[in-house]
């Protein structure tokens, strides 16, 4: 069950390169979210679906030497990169390990559980939240960030972007995921017994720079899945990628990431 066959976007080195590009573009919004929730020194944290560990390291800095962060992921290549980055930054209060939220057998409970862009790829997000609830200490907080692909926009309208969006959403749904899960996060948290639920919405768009390249790079990273699932031909994929890069390089266009929904809540303290 801990394979990557459900995952639409390339894993391994290529997937890590994409996440390394995205991480600084959304770091400000993620840090603002962590500020709103509040993290104290000494907390025990889990970053599930941690990828190459960008948020894990930020959590480790925030909880200080008396706290600890576990970064869990099913992609061993990304975990190796995360360990290397932690070593380079001299961050010692973090451990990266192979972990699948669909099959967790951890004995410990955490004060904070964080997940970004994880639930969108899972066929049973509610089941995953139930598992995370069981691994959260009473009074502990869960912090989620995930996409709502209905909030993917550009200026002016771009047919290649519209086709890319349609292909991405179809592929994710075909593999059991939900490309629109972001807007559902507050309801999912409530349905799984979390309380004091809050939310915010983030839309990252730009006129220049890396933010405009996200759609083209993501299209490159879902090409294998589109071909394997019979959703597009190589020639169509290449044409869409070329047009997306041309759109991004036009100084008169605006492009960016899909809307991201942030949601957080707590496990009741008296259970």
Explained architecture:
- It is a single chain.
- With 271 residues, the chain is of the alpha/beta class.
- It has a domain at 12-150 and 177-206 and 259-266: Rossmann fold (3-Layer(aba) Sandwich), CATH 3.40.50.150.
- The protein has helices spanning 12-37, 54-63, 76-89, 125-134, 159-174, 185-191, 214-228, 234-249; strands at 44-48, 68-73, 94-98, 110-116, 136-148, 195-202, 205-206, 255-256, 259-266.
- It has a seven-stranded mixed β-sheet. It has a two-stranded antiparallel ribbon with strand order 7-8.
- Helix 2 links the parallel strand 1 (44-48) and strand 2 (68-73).
- Helix 7 runs antiparallel to helix 8.
How large is the radius of gyration? 18 Å
Q: According to CATH, what is the class of the domain at 12-150 and 177-206 and 259-266?
A: Alpha Beta
CATH fold category name of the domain at 12-150 and 177-206 and 259-266 = Rossmann fold
Q: Report how far apart the termini are.
A: 31 Å
Structural class: alpha/beta
Name of the CATH homologous superfamily of the domain at 12-150 and 177-206 and 259-266: Vaccinia Virus protein VP39
Number of helices: 8
Number of strands: 9
* Quaternary structure annotation: single chain
Query: Fraction of residues in helices?
Result: 40-55%
The portion of residues forming beta strands comes to 15-25%
- CATH architecture of the domain at 12-150 and 177-206 and 259-266, by name, is 3-Layer(aba) Sandwich
Mean pLDDT: 93
Give the neighbour order of strands across the main sheet. Answer: 3-2-1-4-5-9-6
Order of helices and strands: HEHEHEEHEHHEEHHEE
The outline comes out as: globular
* Poorly predicted ranges: none
Largest sheet descriptor: 7 strands, mixed
């Amino acid at each position: 069950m801990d394979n990557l066959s459900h995952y639409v976007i390339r894993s391994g080195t290529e997937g890590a390169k994409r996440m390394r590009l995205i991480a600084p573009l959304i770091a400000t919004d993620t840090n603002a979210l962590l500020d709103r929730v509040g993290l104290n020194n000494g907390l025990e944290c889990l970053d599930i679906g941690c990828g190459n560990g960008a948020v894990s390291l930020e959590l480790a800095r925030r909880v200080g030497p008396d706290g600890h962060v576990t970064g869990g992921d099913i992609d061993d290549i990304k975990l190796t990169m995360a360990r290397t980055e932690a070593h380079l930054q001299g961050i010692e209060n973090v451990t990266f390990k192979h972990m699948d939220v669909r099959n967790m057998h951890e004995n410990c409970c955490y004060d904070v559980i964080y997940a970004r862009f994880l639930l969108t790829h899972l066929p049973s997000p509610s089941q995953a939240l139930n598992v995370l609830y069981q691994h959260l200490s009473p009074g502990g907080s869960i912090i989620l960030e995930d996409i709502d692909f209905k909030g993917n926009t550009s200026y002016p309208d771009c047919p290649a972007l519209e086709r890319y969006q349609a292909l991405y959403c179809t592929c994710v749904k075909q593999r059991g995921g939900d490309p629109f899960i972001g807007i559902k996060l507050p309801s999912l948290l409530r349905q799984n017994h979390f309380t004091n639920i809050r939310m915010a919405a983030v839309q990252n768009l730009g006129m220049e720079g890396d933010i405009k390249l996200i759609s083209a790079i993501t299209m490159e990273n879902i090409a294998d899945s589109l071909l394997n699932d019979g959703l597009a031909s190589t020639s169509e994929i290449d044409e869409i990628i070329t047009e997306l890069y041309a759109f991004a390089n036009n100084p008169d266009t605006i492009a960016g990431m899909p809307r991201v929904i942030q949601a957080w809540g707590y496990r009741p303290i008296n259970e």
